[in-house]
Amino acid sequence: xxxxxxxxxxxxxxxxxxxxxxxxxxxxxxxxxxxxxxxxxxxxxxxxxxxxxxxxxxxxxxxxxxxxxxxxxxxxxxxxxxxxxxxxxxxxxxxxxxxxxxxxxxxxxxxxxxxxxxxxxxxxxxxxxxxxxxxxxxxxxxxxxxxxxxxxxxxxxxxxxxxxxxxxxxxxxxxxxxxxxxxxxxxxxxxxxxxxxxxxxxxxxxxxxxxxxxxxxxxxxxxxxxxxxxxxxxxxxxxxxxxxxxxxxxxxxxxxxxxxxxxxxxxxxxxxxxxxxxxxxxxxxxxxxxxxxxxxxxxxxxxxxxxxxxxxxxxxxxxxxxxxxxxxxxxxxxxxxxxxxxxxxxxxxxxxxxxxxxxxxxxxxxxxxxxxxxxxxxxxxxxxxxxxxxxxxxxxxxxxxxxxxxxxxxxxxxxxxxxxxxxxxxxxxxxxxxxxxxxxxxxxxxxxxxxxxxxxxxxxxxxxxxxxxxxxxxxxxxxxxxxxxxxxxxxxxxxxxxxxxxxxxxxxxxxxxxxxxxxxxxxxxxxxxxxxxxxxxxxxxxxxxxxxxxxxxxxxxxxxxxxxxxxxxxxx
Length: 572
Prior knowledge:
This protein is α+β, with helices and mostly antiparallel strands. It folds into three domains: 20-146, Phosphorylase Kinase, domain 1, CATH 3.30.200.20; 152-199 and 221-310, Orthogonal Bundle (Transferase(Phosphotransferase), domain 1); 419-571, Galactose-binding domain-like (Jelly Rolls, Sandwich). Helix content is 22%, strand content 23%. It is built from ten helices and 21 strands. The protein has helices at residues 110-123, 154-158, 165-184, 212-217, 224-241, 265-268, 274-282, 301-310, 331-334, 360-396, and strands at residues 67-68, 72-81, 84-91, 96-104, 131-137, 140-146, 152-153, 197-199, 205-207, 243-244, 254-255, 419-420, 424-428, 452-453, 470-489, 496-503, 516-523, 527-547, 550-551, 560-561, 564-571. Strands 12, 13, 14, 15, 16, 17, 18 and 21 form an eight-stranded antiparallel sheet that branches. The chain starts with 66 loop residues before the first strand and ends with a strand.
């Protein structure tokens, strides 16, 4: 059965981005892989299962304004429980909000919290709220993680009702896939509940507290995959029914009736999607919960991913169109086209036609119209005959012989434009400071909603001299004739400038001076086309951005000069 005792948990962070003037140090302290800048979300603020929990005084004399590592300034205490506290803080070096868990270094769980945080940081999966730092110093252990203020907890979403089938399908698909990836790396969550699942403003689902939440509370499991799988089933059950699938109330949701046992979601609430109801039941296997009568139980997140893949895809609802009150049908819409045929024997009202012109003026008007029509027909016939005669004369002229494709015999036909396949991509950062290198492949995946983005800089539009530029290098698989690039941009405004270079490899550190420049261009819109005067033969192409527009704060980063690439296509 899912864990019943819950308490206030972690704070997540608001991934602001690296300012131009404070860009040098992004490595995490004490062995954490690196300080990743990620798409923003909120971390877990406070769980509640309806029971009051006594607040345990922390032995740490921490207060608002206290600074850790001369960098992280504590702002608001969100949780103070069982010897640790969780805070919303500010990273003064990178000027962004973060979340911080703090506990004494001699705490019985300090070592396990450090280990869990470092393991989570090394995973580096953007579907999880990222651990940015994990440090032990001055008799304290603290874990710094993303703060994501624009994301909404599943708890909050369910307060207004169950999710639509498509939203529930997206949630369970993304959460199952993320947890399957974590378990492949040996990481479990063990406290996966509606407070730990967030939906961003872009519709992405993120998980916070991977490994860390359980370590902070000393939670363990003999079968971690089974525990996380049943937790995903409980999330889906709650999303479909707005009920918690156990007898006790939790997370603002009512539990199931006493002594009834676990019943399928489509028996709890009318209109529940049958396939999702079956999927939720397959995730339960303990404490009297039975799996679907027709399908085997899913005991790991990987098995849930496979079961979801075998389901028919659930598409979003079609947008409905409501005509405004003053909407008037056109003449064509008022006609019979597209209307159902009348039933046999049914009488249709016939619209009365205006009476024909019977007066002398009417007869004169009809004759005038007829004369104009005859004159027009005669003129058209004469022009057609003249054109045909001219064509025959040209055909007899041997110097004007046409080729079969319509071009002059002496003029070569233009070669058709061909879109070049992209086989691979990598971020190019010769200064050793990448932006979001793991997202390079999202720029040619055919999905305009995915992207690679830069940090948000304090100076611009031109990035130099603090940073010469940012870019991506693409592998076309073999040497190709490259004539142009069409680049989709996330931010419009004054201005985006970029150049194309012929590179020798996917190396992120090759010298720009060793590459051949193909062309450059500038735009203030969300599309940038760079065209070469003459095509260049190359296998690798660098898109090098040297100026970016200024944009306000959003769910990804703070206000500043920034850009993101959604799609890249090369033609030749």
